[in-house]
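To: structure subgroup
Subject: Chain for Friday's discussion

All,

I'm putting the inputs and outputs inline so they're searchable in the archive.
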Amino acid sequence: MTRVLDIVLSLIGLILSFPILLILLIAGWFDTRSPLFTQERVGRHQKPFILVKFRTMSVNTVSVASHLAPTSNITKLGRFLRRTKLDELPQLWNVLTGDMSLVGPRPCLFNQQKLIEVRQSKGVFDVRPGITGLAQVTGVDMSTPDRLAEIDSQMIKQMSLKNYFKYIVLTATGRGAGDAAL
């Protein structure tokens, strides 16, 4: 059922946000000359996929988790995108193609071995990663791998249609801290 909702809602989201996506693409072009950021992430069953977001850091920033990246690399536009969570909009494409869900554990990088190990032991990779979830609306990020994996596991066990929409609404209304590097 959630896959059908993911397809319908991401398609509606992409159509309705098209003017915003276009404006942010143009603004991003002037900001960094490379408005989209792609990165290989760990997906369902630990299969790699390419996540797409709006670029919030300078082009030469090393590929690490946000909490490990230097905050000085965040551009002015990037700060705005992160604060408003608009940097996540292109991930609706990842949802539409089936690499992600709207709600699920945030996908990590392959170099985050501690997080991968703990998530694997808790069965977190049995579901699609998501744009948002319980960890995001409670301010838990990837800097605390054990706690994050526990929250992800709890969310998966308690997932329902009600919680699916609850996490989306809480994210859309600004609940949660987002990435630690702000």
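Points worth raising on Friday:
Residues 2-16 form the longest helix (15 residues).
The radius of gyration is 15 Å.

D.
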